[in-house]
Amino acid sequence: MSLPKILAVMPLALMLTGGAAMAEDKAPAATITLSGTGELKLAPDAAVVSIGVSSDAKTAKDALAANTKAVAGIVEQVKAAGIEAKNLRTAQFSINPTYASRKRADGREVQEVVGYNVANVVSVRVAPIDKLGPLLDQVVQQGANQINGLDFVVDGADRKLDEARAAAIADARRKAEIYVAGAGARLGRVLSISEAGAHPMPVFKATRAMAAEMAAAPVPVEAGEETLSAQVSVTWEIVNAGN
């Protein structure tokens, strides 16, 4: 390449190099990240309760027969209360031997099978909730001796959580605007949004109930409120107020 051509190319090379250096020297954008929470309180639409029967007998056959008869009666009672079959499902079923200690002639203790236990638990979705108290009375009288859990739920919770999500975004933005305004700047474009969590938060949950007490008197049921909660984390670019 001749000297004039080399000299002609050099200014362009210098311009490109200088532009790259300026791009490398440009400071990264300032950002702010804030979390927000949104809550929505609603009356529950339904209750989910686990109703079970635990039966003991000397043989597995007798324990199973007694348990099957009791559970069949309970399921029949539940359906008679107007609860559709699609709202019932077997949550647990087990057959286990029961043991007792016995001393042998040599004085050593051994464990012997002395009987069998059969447990069958049915999960029932009850709606409307005012059916729940009378239903618990009826199934206990029918032979239920295990009430393992009681949860109140909101129908369509995932869809209704959208309102809590919108409130969580607004909460994060409100707090971010306070900070940047105090610093003499303003919020720019949103760089990222992540959901930290979104779920129903039941205000009432019973993990165990006394069957004998339920049989003795009508069961009072108070559903209270269900809280749907969402948490988000949002990152914004910070823009100088004069820009």
Report on the architecture of this protein.
The protein is of the alpha+beta class and 243 residues long. The protein folds into two domains: 28-43 and 155-212 and 224-243, 2-Layer Sandwich (Translation Initiation Factor IF3), CATH 3.30.110; 46-153, 2-Layer Sandwich (Alpha-Beta Plaits), CATH 3.30.70. Helix content is 36%, strand content 42%. The chain has five helices and eight strands. The chain has helices at residues 3-25, 60-80, 132-142, 157-182, 211-216, and strands spanning 31-42, 46-57, 88-103, 109-126, 146-153, 185-202, 205-206, 226-240. The strands form two sheets. The chain has a five-stranded antiparallel sheet with strand order 3-4-2-5-7, with helices on one face. Strands 1-8-6 form a three-stranded antiparallel sheet. α2 packs antiparallel against α3 (132-142). The protein is elongated, with a radius of gyration of 33 Å. 21% of the residues are buried. Residues 6-23 and 202-216 have low confidence and may be disordered.
Q: Any key phrases for this structure?
A:
single chain, 243 residues, alpha+beta, Translation Initiation Factor IF3, Alpha-Beta Plaits, 2 domains, 5-stranded antiparallel β-sheet, 3-stranded antiparallel β-sheet, 8 strands
